[in-house]
Design goal:
The mean pLDDT is 92. This protein is 32% helix and 24% strand. By secondary structure, it is α/β, with parallel strands linked by helices. The chain has a seven-stranded mixed sheet with strand order 6-5-4-10-11-13-12, sandwiched between helices. It has a three-stranded antiparallel sheet with strand order 1-2-3. A three-stranded mixed sheet has the order 7-9-8. The chain folds into two domains: 76 residues, no CATH class; 180 residues, Rossmann fold (3-Layer(aba) Sandwich). The N and C termini lie far apart (50 Å). It contains eight helices and 13 strands. A hairpin with a 5-residue loop joins strand 2 and strand 3.
Length: 275
């Protein structure tokens, strides 16, 4: 029976699921939810969505998203799968967290990283895209959310290249962006000054702007225990990695690399001052 089920899944369910994925991301926004729900059914997921006010809302959770491709990639196999994937991708599955721990999420998008914590953490989510920030506000209640771009200077108006469909918007100029807007900047030092507490973890995913963001963390660097960074090949039109710049900066400032993954080029650093 198990062998028959594996064959059925391999030859029927998996190809059909892949076909539905391709059809779904190209479908009309108003019927996308039907493809999403059928694909969820095939994947044995309980999540179902409906379309309202140009966004997609979940029936079983107070959560929404607006971009079809990103929504399917993130939630197409359910929230539990999404949480496990994020924990693994950002190398935090073996870290311990307690009530009251401060987590800073740079590049928060819809707020998915918040779902990784079952403790009563203090969450600070920073998302520069105005439209995505609306989802973040809806999804994350009673926490600290900032609609600015983290950079190496504060209170500066800079260009932001919007590519919300795939979650690849960036301060660094990129190809195939949908529009260019102005956003206000803030530094990590300014954010941490206002928090005025030790920081358990910073998650940094900024589509190639990671070195500049770390450059804005000088005064409060020693108050941060862990930093997990997506250093993937996403910087600018040449799509270079930022692993060298980020690693050099942190290692020269008393951090050590404690974990690394090849898949997305994500690196986890720990401050040597913390036990």
């Amino acid at each position: 029976m198990n062998s028959l089920f594996r064959l059925y899944k391999y030859f029927i369910i998996t190809p059909l699921s892949k076909l539905l994925y391709l059809i779904s991301i190209k479908s009309n926004r108003q019927i996308f939810n039907h493809f999403f729900n059928f694909r969820s059914f095939l994947n044995n997921c309980k999540e179902r969505i409906y379309f309202k006010d140009n966004c997609y809302f979940f029936n079983n959770k107070d959560w929404k998203f607006s971009e079809t491709q990103q929504g399917l990639n993130a939630y197409g196999k359910g929230f539990e799968n999404r949480i496990n994937d994020l924990k693994s991708s950002y190398l935090i599955q073996n870290l311990e967290f307690n009530d009251g721990d401060v987590i800073i999420d740079i590049g928060a998008n819809n707020g998915d990283f918040y779902l990784c914590f079952d403790k009563k953490i203090e969450y600070h989510g920073i998302e520069p895209s105005p439209s995505v920030f609306q989802n973040l506000e809806f999804n994350i209640k009673n926490q600290n959310l900032i609609n600015k771009g983290v950079w190496n200077t504060s209170n500066k108006e800079i260009e932001f290249f919007v590519k919300d469909a795939s979650g690849d918007s960036s301060i660094i100029p990129i190809d195939n962006f949908t529009k260019k807007i102005k956003i206000e900047t803030i530094t990590l030092d300014e954010i941490i000054n206002k928090i005025n507490k030790p920081i358990q973890l910073i998650k940094l995913e900024a589509e190639g702007a990671e070195p500049e963001i770390l450059d804005g963390l000088k005064i409060n660097l020693n108050s941060v225990k862990y930093i997990t960074i997506d250093c993937g090949f996403e910087r600018g039109v040449k799509k270079t990695s930022t692993i060298a710049e980020c690693s050099n900066y942190l290692i020269n400032n008393n951090f050590e690399m404690i974990s690394f993954t090849n898949g997305r080029v994500v690196v986890l650093f720990k401050n040597k001052n913390f036990s």
